[in-house]
Specification:
177 residues; elongated; alpha+beta
Length: 177
């Protein structure tokens, strides 16, 4: 996974960033200790690294400078589980001041929107498979089962283009297996 792409905004000119630091002050309040990060250049990797999760912001791409090991640019990948933990903290921070019931509803809506997006992607795979000269019935049936499991209990509405493309019919077919 390229985490750089994960933080890139739609405009391709800015990134969403969460500052990292070696200063421990604020741990537990707005900062989490990540420990030593072996992917950093040798001058930095022996220090503990901390993420300041309440200072997420956008930054212009031209403000970034490459980390270097000597004169060579050093790629500094972050372990996926750390990235996910920081993303989770950032999301929680974004909705911190919203009343709990509303916060739950917002996060539930985001979750359900992703479920529907996943189901739509599978439905389009079915559309594609059904256009083949010899459709793979087994794969279509597997997608239908997955769609059924994915959208079970989720309220959704589909726009006109999805209806026109037959996605609503595929969802109906999946729900009635």
């Amino acid at each position: 996974m390229n985490f750089t792409d994960s933080g890139r905004n739609n405009d391709k000119a800015t990134f969403i960033v969460m500052p990292l630091t070696s200063a421990p002050n604020g741990v537990g309040v707005n900062k989490i200790k990540l420990g030593a990060m072996n992917s950093l250049p040798s001058s930095l990797k022996t220090n503990d690294t901390y993420a300041v999760y309440n200072q997420v912001r956008t930054v212009n791409a031209d403000r970034f400078i490459a980390l270097k090991e000597g004169s060579a640019v050093k790629e500094c990948p972050m372990e996926k589980h750390i990235f996910h933990k920081l993303l989770f903290l950032g999301l929680r921070e974004m909705v911190y001041s919203i009343p709990q019931e509303e916060r739950i509803e917002i996060l539930k809506s985001v979750y359900e929107a992703e479920l529907i997006s996943k189901a739509k992607d599978m439905a389009y795979q079915i559309v594609k498979l059904r256009k083949e000269e010899i459709p793979d019935k087994k794969q279509i049936d597997e997608f239908l089962i997955q769609i059924n499991e994915t959208i079970k209990g989720v309220t959704y509405s589909l726009d006109k283009q999805l209806v026109k493309d037959g996605i609503d019919a595929i969802f109906y077919e999946a729900k009635n297996l």
